[in-house]
């Protein structure tokens, strides 16, 4: 059943791409060209379409509020202010596709997104952007754009082999990402989430640690079967999370997975093994949904390279993502 759901997701993506390909404005990259932020967003729009007021990807979401309390071990990892004392947070759970009205039980709704905005004592913010799949389809922003263009030009009427067929033949990691089983969650609150990019953490003494974030649900992982998912309402995850947080706080452990010698720190397509050492950074406690979800989503912009002293970019894709997000943000304000 999981495998068939993966095939359905891929087939739907190709069909959607066919509908968008005629209006896509994304030029093919020249040899050696570095993708611009606008080109990356154009490539996403070429797959999912451009929807007024919506994000280019992870368009459907819900915003909640709460707090983050650091662990006793966090200051030894980083001198960042939110690892020294508790701070408020704004979080957003989302479905994957750049389609604002996608059903929560649609295969393209996975992987789910979890973004966290930490409100720091000096009035600034720092953000984490993660998703519910431990890995990423591409090692670089340029490769990711190539994948998106291949999808956007490979509808059901495309000549065989399609651009996507050709791309996936030489990119097994991207193929695994597209076809991997992504079971339907019982709740946004019962999924693990992974920050696939590596950051550099510096403590008060200057010691450096390299790591990737994980957000692990304290209530455990819980999923529904394909048969059960077929019967749920299109907005079941949003309805469930509102009901859940009204009953009691939703809590996640914020964990740092520590790099080992030999790990590629600049390649998010390579997931690190479960044997890597982890450090508990603290607890995210989500206590309420915002009153006006649409307004909150419209004004929120998450930037993974908005970092305080004590955390620095290690993976270049962090900056590529942070440059593309404002392009999408500006378009959804129009």
From TrEMBL:
UniProt binding sites for heme: 325
CDD domains: srpA_like (cd08153)
Gene Ontology MF terms: catalase activity; heme binding; metal ion binding
E.C. number(s) listed in UniProt: 1.11.1.-
Signal peptide interval: 1-24
Cofactor dependence: heme
Keywords annotated in UniProt: Heme, Iron, Metal-binding, Oxidoreductase, Peroxidase, Signal
Family, as annotated: Belongs to the catalase family.
Name listed for the protein in its UniProt record: Catalase-related peroxidase
